[in-house]
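Q: Fold this one first, please.
A: Sequence and structure below.
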Amino acid sequence: MIETLISSKTRVKLLLKFFLNSTTKSYLRNLEAEFGESTNAIRLELNKLEKAGMLQTEFEGNKKLFKANTTHPLYKDINNIVFKYIGLDWIIEYVVSKLGNVEKIYLTGSFAKGTDSPQIDIALIGNVNEQFLKELCEKLEKKISRKIGYKILTKMTNEEPSLLLWSNKIKEKNIPK
C-alpha cells in the first residue's frame, strides 16, 4: 500500500524506523547493518528527510544520530500513516472493543525497535480470554496481511523494547485516528 505512494524502499524503512516510535535514534552504520543496504542509498534518503525537517540530528562522539522531529507539522500525519500501514489501528480497535478486560497494550518485537516485519508482536496486560484472543487474531491477520504474536502478562517488564499503544487507566491512545 505505502509502496505505491513512496517508491523508495529505503525511505519506507526509514519512516517505519523513526516514525513508529519517536524515541528511536540511529546512526548511518547501524542502519546499514539493519537494512542490509548500502550506506550511500541510506545517506541519500536520510539527507532528504533531514533537509525536509522531518528528521533531527545530534552528535554522540563522532556519530551523527538521527531521530524523528516530533515538532514537524507532518509528524502526526506520517505517524498515523505508518501505524495504519502496519495495521496497529485495527489491532487496537479489535482487541479493545472485543476484549473488555484489557488494561494496556504494548507493541513489542521488531516493530517496537522500528524494524519492519511480517509479524506484529503485542503484549496485553489484563484478564484476557486467550482462546477468544486467538480467534480475534486469526480474523485480524487476514484483514491486515500480517501475523500477530501476543503475550498475556500481569505487568510489563523492561526486558525488551516496547511501545505503549493503549491504556485504559489514562485513556491514552498512541494510535492516531
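Q: Good. Now the second chain.
A: Here it is, same layout.
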Amino acid sequence: MRKPGSMKGLEELGRVRLSPSFFMRDFLYSEISVFYGIPNIPDNPDLAIAAGTKLCTELLEPLKATFGHLAIRSSYRNAAVNAFGNENGLNCANSERAKGRHVWDHLDSQDHMGAMACVALPWFADRYANGADWRSLAWWIHDHLPYSRLHFFPKLCAFNIGWSETPDRAIYSYIAPRGCLTKPGMGNYAGDHGDWYEDFPKLRHGVVNIS
C-alpha cells in the first residue's frame, strides 16, 4: 500500500483490519499530531500494518478477551511526530529508540520489526485506584503473553506494551518500586509468579468481554 496522499487514502488505511477487534484507525490518533498539526501518517503502511497486526493478535486481543475493554492511550507515531515530541519534551523517546516501538513503520537498529501501544485496562485501573499493586498485572502479562517490553505509568496504571521479532522480555515502571522489575538474567525472571495474581481471570484467547 502506498503512503496515503489524500483524505480518501487515509480513510482506506484506517479501514485495514489488524485483528478481530482492532482496525488501523484505532491507532492513528495522536494528541501531538492533532494539537501541533503534524499528520500522523505512516511512511511505510505495509510495515506498519504487519507490525500492528502482530501487536494486536498476540498481545492486545488476549488482553481484551481476558480483562474486557482495553483503552488505547497512545500508539503509532510516524517519525516526524515522534521526533517533534522528543525534541519538545512531550514524552517521546528519541527517534532511534522509537523505531520498532511506537514508530511501527521503521525497523529498529537491528533491522527487526516491532510495534508498541500505551494502553489502560479499566478492569485493573479500578483495582489500582483501590490500592492494587501494579506488579500483579505485570507478572500476569509476563507469565501469559509474548511481550517484548512493558513500562508502567502512575496515571490509570497505563502501560506501554510492545511486540518485537526479537523480544527483550523486560519490565520497567515509573510507579514505586520504580525501575526494572525483571529482565533475562535476573533471579526473579523465570518460574511461576501466580501468587501475585491469584484472583485474576484466566487467560482467554477469544474475542469476548467479561463483567
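Q: Anything worth noting on the second one?
A: Strands lie at 71-74, 114-120, 149-152, 159-164, 170-173, 179-182.
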